[in-house]
Every structure is written in structure tokens, then in C-alpha cells.
Write a structure and sequence with these properties.
Elements: H1 3-31, E1 47-51, E2 64-68, E3 77-84, E4 87-92, E5 109-111, E6 118-120, E7 129-131, E8 140-141, E9 143-146, E10 151-155
Antiparallel strand pairs: 1-10, 2-3, 3-4, 4-8, 5-6, 6-7, 9-10
The chain binds FE2/S2 (inorganic) cluster (FES).
């Protein structure tokens, strides 16, 4: 065997080991959850109310507002969607992949501005990661609607 063969063989052996090592390191870091860099906001117990009559964008099913409520959701906006005639749901805009910002919804989904994770704004799977970048579902906040007073209460 020539020295050129030996050096090639040594090179391939070394790179093979590096590839295996790199695979092990990647696997090791993913075992903790590659898409689980969850950055949920702790619940504060704050209640924020909206008067339906004062929210033009929420007058029809599918309508939404994207708004920050100071002191809640780490001061980041939430998206409130009228998901049914008498039902409203609220999701954080804090993307659970790498903390991007989920944008205003369109066609039943809201998309993150960083890597395009898609989250449902539909009644049945509100806040669920439904496409694009894989990520945990968005944090949602219990949202109540009092029909008699027309008040929407978001529980942060
Ligand atoms: S941070 Fe939202 S998809 Fe990556």
C-alpha cells in the first residue's frame, strides 16, 4: 500500500468518525426535543375584558384582532379569533420554535415570521402546529364570552 493510499484511508477513517460523532451529537441534542425549545409564558391570573360591540373586527365568525395587552403574555401580542358564533379563542403570538412572531391569520392559519411555522385558527384545533416548521402548539388562553353583556374575558 502506498503512502497516498494510507493517507487517503486515514482521511476517510477520520472523517467517518467525525460523521458518526456529529450524528451522535445531533441525536443527543434532539433527544431533548429539537422543536421543544418551549418558551411558554407563565399564567398571571390577570383577566382582560373586551366589549364585543367595540370590536369591529370581531363582529363576524373568522374575524380576529392581533393586539398586545400590557403586562400580559410578556407584553407580546395575542390573536383573538371569533371561532364560532358565540365563541372566541386567544393564542399567543410567541412562536414555540425559536420565539418568532406569529403574524395575523389568513385562511384559517397564522404563520410565524421566522421559519414559517403554521398554526391553526380554527375552532377544533386552535393554536395547533399544522404545517411549515415543526413546533409545539402555541400557548392559548382561556377566553369566555358573556352573551348577555357582550363581554369577552381573556384569562392570562
Ligand atoms: S421561530 Fe417560528 S418557525 Fe421558527
Amino acid at each position: 500500500m502506498t503512502s497516498q493510499h494510507q493517507s487517503r484511508r486515514t482521511f476517510l477513517k477520520a472523517t467517518g468518525q467525525l460523521t458518526v460523532l456529529s450524528g451522535v451529537l445531533t441525536l443527543g441534542s434532539c433527544l431533548g426535543g429539537c422543536s421543544d425549545s418551549t418558551t411558554s409564558v407563565p399564567l398571571t391570573g390577570n383577566k382582560v375584558t373586551l366589549t364585543l360591540a367595540g370590536e369591529a373586527a370581531l363582529q363576524t365568525v373568522g374575524g380576529f384582532i392581533r393586539r398586545a395587552f400590557t403586562g400580559n403574555n410578556n407584553n407580546l401580542p395575542v390573536i383573538v379569533v371569533r371561532t364560532a358564533d358565540k365563541k372566541f379563542q386567544t393564542m399567543s403570538t410567541l412562536c414555540q420554535h425559536e420565539s418568532g412572531s406569529v403574524q395575523a391569520p389568513s385562511s384559517g392559519k397564522a404563520v410565524c415570521n421566522l421559519h414559517a411555522a403554521q398554526y391553526s385558527t380554527a375552532e377544533g384545533n386552535f393554536g395547533a402546529n399544522i404545517g411549515g416548521q415543526s413546533a409545539p402548539n402555541l400557548q392559548t388562553y382561556v377566553t369566555e364570552f358573556n352573551e348577555s353583556t357582550g363581554v369577552i374575558t381573556i384569562n392570562f
